[in-house]
Amino acid sequence: MGLHAVVSRLRAYCLARLPSTREFLYSQKPIGSPPEQALLRIAFYAIAAFSAAGASAATLYSQTTPDEPIGAFSSQDMTSGQIIADNFSLSSASTVNVRSIRVIGAATGTSISQSTDIFRVVFFEDSNGLPGDTVEGGNFSEGVLSTRIPTEGQRLNGRNVPIEYSIDLADGVLLNPSTVYWISIMNDPEPRDGWLWARANGTFDSQIATVRSTSGEFTGLPWVEGASSGGMWFELSDQNVPEPSSLLLITTSLAMIQLLRRL
Predict the structure, then answer these.
(1) Which of the listed residues 42, 77, 90, 96 has the most CB atoms within 10 Å of its CB?
(2) pTM of the predicted model over 0.85
């Protein structure tokens, strides 16, 4: 479930408690107990701010499917680790700014709660059907903000719990329409776990590329073409990932309301 789906559910809960926005904000008629009213206001304004921020957001490119992915390939930025890249082309009418990525993957070797994500995302130009030079401003290293939510789908490769990650790219990267690019998404979860990037359940493009990492250096790597049976699972957006504090404010407020109603 994506972040917007979570907020949609929270918004529906608030609307179920509030007859109307006008009544809530301006009416003198009490709605719930005084503590409930205060918490509802906090949640209401947090959801409103979140919704306004996403109102003009657009999905720029998507290789997602209604069916949850079941297969995955290793993609890590560590010495001798495998790196995966997938090609794509935007159908937009003009240059766009990619500010976040949604991707499904899985950590291996440690429980989800014990691992710490260290993502790296790199955009490449195309060079004769393989990744070429890094796109200007398209190398996002350690420290990128990410959130994660279990998908409740089938285990990837039959073993690993699938997680939907939302990766923030801060100021983003500018990409041109009708141009072939490559994207590589890597994760080196601590403490020294492996990471799998899910394959899409559908046919988008049968071409991916693989290479052995040299832990940080991408120029001139000997990429090799590989078949992926449809492409990797990812989605590009022009909206930044909300700060975790915003989501925490919403969920904490609503949790407190539920607690108050039980007392």
Answers:
(1) 77
(2) no
